[in-house]
């Protein structure tokens, strides 16, 4: 991809950083690559842990954002996308090739706990095996599944048989005395209102305390990555991101793809369209947090008639505004590469007035929520001091969004890796250091206030924007064909955390590899850490505080 003259300093800085890291890694590096977002180092499959420990402990790369696995004609490949919680723009990729006849690579799990699930998914869908992995089994597909769906030789017409097997107590072999059977296996879900979708939580209790917990996912898996690999950049991929977090984060999902593809194809979005995007994204964030608030109260103390319905009432106002803007209530399909599909609805004054009415009423609404929820003794007893997630544990699992900020981690891509119009607006990142279920609730409620501040400023800018300068789209070629072997990982701050996408181009109008980094996927990994030693009602509260959507977990 050619760089414009003004981008030259960034390239020099990237190469310089790459040389610095190459010196640190020394003989561990067998080759080098340049991805659009970061320098990349190719290493041997038996030196993964040594390399990652060195990058984490000596260079400060404490955040494993994503693990991408893919198959080429001559090899398999795992890519570890690393960055820092304190400096999001400092990125590096570690590329681990393996042979076709022996796709075995050393696990990264001892370095980053989040690699546990990411590598299981890589094994499940692509077929790479990770030596030393503590739980090397499929994660999205049934254990009896034959083949790996993202492999080049996978036969999609092959019939599959998914058997129903009895569940065994996973702690049975741990008992020294065969007569001392105090544990009980409990299935929670997948069809249970407190699982926030089709989630199965395999739970073992000793008396009333949880001693083992295993989230069982994959019931909603649709292989969205493969679907996107079959679509064209320009037109056919954009409708699908709405269906990942299908609840309320449609525009945020669309922005993740738009940002990645625009940087890949060197497309510059007009300033006016960036403001519209920012406005729509923050409306979606409020809608998402309203739903999280209502369902959390429902999980914790079963309050449907007041809190849940109040939250739905206010969320509905946001949905009406988004419907005016996009024409849809859920699957918005409003963003386009280079901008948005159309301008604000006419008459603009009525549209702005509707937004202002909502923003003006919001302080009183939030005060009412605090009276009903955060001041409620039952909710306080159920959430303060439960579901504790220390910051270092959250970082190791790659937790982001309100889950990380509720553990005192000051990390928000809108500020730390600026995109859209955020860096030109006045707003604050909300952080709470309680590390418990109550803190995660407070973060979301306070973030609604910050989103309202952003929306208010966007409305003022859009009102004053000269009519002849309302450019909603860049001049994008009808067919996009990024250069072959161009690779990029980009992310945005979704309502639930870091939503990232990796794309590898092969010179055609379709991606050769399209990988989705779901914030809910990484956040859900923390549930056993928060729940073991607590009671089942505490686990339900912890699960609700994660605010997962299974469409995004499974993809």
TrEMBL record:
Gene3D superfamilies: Cytochrome-c3 Hydrogenase, chain B (1.10.645.10), NADH:ubiquinone oxidoreductase, 30kDa subunit (3.30.460.80). PROSITE patterns: COMPLEX1_30K (PS00542). InterPro entries: NADH_Q_OxRdtase_suD (IPR001135), NADH_quin_OxRdtase_su_C/D-like (IPR037232), NADH_UbQ_OxRdtase_30kDa_su (IPR001268), NADH_UbQ_OxRdtase_CS (IPR020396), NDH1_su_D/H (IPR022885), NiFe-Hase_large (IPR029014). GO terms for molecular function: catalytic activity. The keyword Signal does not apply. Residues 42-158 form the NADH:ubiquinone oxidoreductase 30kDa subunit domain. It comes from the Archaea. Keywords: Cell membrane, Membrane, Multifunctional enzyme, NAD, Transport. The keyword NAD applies. Residues 305-555 form the NADH-quinone oxidoreductase subunit D domain. Its main location: membrane. It is a peripheral membrane protein. It is found in: Cell membrane. SUPFAM superfamilies: HydB/Nqo4-like (SSF56762), Nqo5-like (SSF143243). It catalyses: a quinone + NADH + 5 H(+)(in) = a quinol + NAD(+) + 4 H(+)(out). GO terms for cellular component: plasma membrane. NDH-1 is composed of 13 different subunits. Subunits NuoB, CD, E, F, and G constitute the peripheral sector of the complex. In the C-terminal section; belongs to the complex I 49 kDa subunit family. NCBIfam families: PRK06075.1. This is NADH-quinone oxidoreductase subunit D. It comes from Haloferax namakaokahaiae. The lineage of its organism: Archaea, Methanobacteriati, Methanobacteriota, Stenosarchaea group, Halobacteria.
């Amino acid at each position: 991809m050619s760089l414009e003259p003004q981008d030259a300093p960034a390239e020099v800085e990237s190469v310089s950083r790459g040389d610095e890291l190459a010196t640190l890694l020394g003989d561990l590096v067998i080759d080098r690559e340049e991805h659009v977002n970061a320098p990349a180092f190719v290493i041997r499959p038996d030196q993964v842990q040594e390399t990652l420990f060195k990058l984490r402990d000596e260079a400060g790369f404490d955040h494993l954002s994503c693990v991408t696995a893919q198959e080429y004609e001559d090899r398999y490949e795992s890519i570890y996308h690393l960055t820092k919680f304190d400096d999001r723009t400092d990125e590096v990729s570690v590329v681990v090739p393996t042979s076709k006849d022996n796709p075995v690579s050393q696990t990264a799990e001892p370095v980053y706990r989040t690699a546990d699930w990411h590598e299981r998914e890589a094994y499940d869908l692509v077929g790479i095996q990770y030596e030393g992995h503590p739980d090397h089994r499929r994660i999205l597909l049934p254990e009896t599944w034959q083949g790996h769906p993202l492999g080049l030789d996978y036969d999609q017409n092959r019939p599959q048989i998914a058997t129903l097997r009895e569940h065994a107590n996973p702690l049975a072999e741990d008992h020294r005395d065969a007569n001392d059977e105090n544990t009980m296996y409990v299935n929670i879900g997948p069809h249970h209102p407190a699982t926030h979708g089709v989630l199965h939580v395999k739970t073992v209790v000793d008396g009333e305390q949880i001693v083992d917990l295993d989230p069982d996912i994959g019931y909603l898996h649709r292989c969205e990555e493969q679907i996107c690999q079959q679509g064209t950049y320009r037109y056919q991929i954009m409708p699908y991101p709405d269906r990942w977090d299908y609840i309320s984060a449609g525009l945020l999902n669309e922005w993740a793809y738009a940002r990645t593809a625009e940087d890949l194809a060197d497309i510059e979005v007009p300033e006016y369209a960036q403001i519209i995007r920012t406005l729509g994204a923050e409306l979606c964030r409020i809608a998402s947090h309203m739903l999280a608030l209502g369902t959390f109260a429902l999980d914790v103390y079963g309050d449907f008639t007041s809190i849940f319905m109040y939250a739905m009432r206010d969320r509905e106002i946001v949905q009406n505004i988004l419907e005016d803007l996009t024409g849809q209530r859920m699957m918005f399909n409003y963003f386009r590469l280079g901008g948005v599909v159309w301008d604000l609805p006419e008459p603009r004054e009525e549209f702005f007035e509707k937004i202002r009415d909502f923003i003006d009423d919001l302080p009183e609404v939030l005060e009412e929520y605090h009276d009903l929820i955060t001041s409620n003794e039952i909710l306080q007893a159920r959430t303060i001091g439960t579901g504790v997630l220390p910051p270092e544990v959250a970082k190791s699992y790659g937790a982001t969004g309100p889950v990380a900020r509720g553990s005192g981690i000051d990390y928000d891509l809108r500020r730390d890796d600026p995109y859209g119009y955020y860096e030109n607006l006045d707003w604050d990142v909300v952080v709470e250091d309680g590390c418990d279920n109550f803190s995660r609730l407070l973060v979301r409620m306070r973030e609604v206030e910050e989103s309202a501040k952003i929306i208010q400023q966007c409305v003022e800018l859009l009102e004053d924007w000269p009519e002849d300068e309302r450019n909603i789209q860049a001049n994008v070629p009808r067919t996009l064909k990024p250069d072959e072997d161009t690779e990029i990982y980009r992310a945005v701050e979704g309502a639930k955390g870091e939503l990232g996408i990796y794309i590898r181009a092969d010179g055609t109008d379709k991606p050769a590899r399209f990988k989705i980094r779901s914030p809910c996927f990484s956040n859900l990994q923390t549930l056993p850490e928060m729940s073991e030693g607590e009671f089942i009602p505490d686990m339900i509260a912890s699960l609700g505080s994660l605010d997962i959507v299974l469409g995004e977990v499974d993809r």
